[in-house]
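Figure 6 in text form: structure in, sequence out.
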């Protein structure tokens, strides 16, 4: 049975939001705590990638914080730092600007990935040997929600050393399974989209309106 570590990506400058997105409350809980609970349902342990410094505000969760080896280089640097510390080969990843990333959706992704692994060798099939990432109903790739193997570390490091922080350029060098949100049927019909992106005060207000 495959075991997983969890990674929560925080540490962004939050320029558009104006405050730390990880600490914004939805339904009476910080986004960071919500994500830790969801990942904790599937992962043996969870790491917070906290950017260039550890944050006292995050310490209440009792989770390991890791800081960037490449500070100021965006979410790829956070993923690189976390993968350098995780205990399992496979890692479930969610960013703090995806407040509705859920264990339910990640289970759906894991099932899709397992099925793709069984289908490798068939024409046109990819096993997603390095990663599996979510794709929104509108067709937008969301690399900050998914499954990553530790073997992607050298690819991340090469890109970061070259000053290329475009996540899609990195994904194009990997064997990636793109998992469509459109195939996900949540248990509750009014479940917010797991790839809802929260970057501005207006996004936060919209997210808060979706929490019952």
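Output sequence:
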């Amino acid at each position: 049975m495959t075991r997983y570590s969890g990674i929560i990506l925080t540490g962004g400058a939050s320029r558009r939001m104006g405050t730390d997105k990880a600490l914004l409350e939805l339904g009476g809980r910080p986004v960071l705590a919500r994500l830790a609970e969801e990942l904790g349902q599937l992962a043996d342990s969870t790491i917070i990638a906290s950017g260039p410094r550890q944050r006292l505000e995050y310490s209440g969760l009792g989770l390991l914080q890791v800081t960037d080896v490449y500070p100021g280089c965006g979410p790829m640097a956070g993923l690189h730092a976390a993968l350098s510390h995780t205990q399992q080969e496979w890692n479930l990843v969610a960013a703090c600007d995806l407040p509705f990333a859920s264990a339910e959706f990640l289970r759906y992704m894991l099932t899709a990935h397992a099925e793709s692994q069984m289908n490798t060798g068939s024409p046109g099939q990819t096993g997603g040997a390095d990663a599996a990432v979510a794709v929104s109903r509108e067709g937008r790739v969301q690399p900050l929600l998914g499954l990553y193997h530790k073997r992607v570390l050298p690819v991340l490091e090469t890109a970061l050393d070259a000053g290329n922080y475009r996540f899609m350029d990195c994904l194009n060098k990997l064997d990636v399974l793109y998992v469509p949100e459109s195939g996900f049927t949540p248990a509750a019909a009014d479940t917010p989209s797991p790839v809802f992106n929260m970057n501005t005060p207006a996004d936060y207000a919209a997210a808060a309106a979706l929490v019952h």
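Caption detail: The chain has a mean pLDDT of 92.
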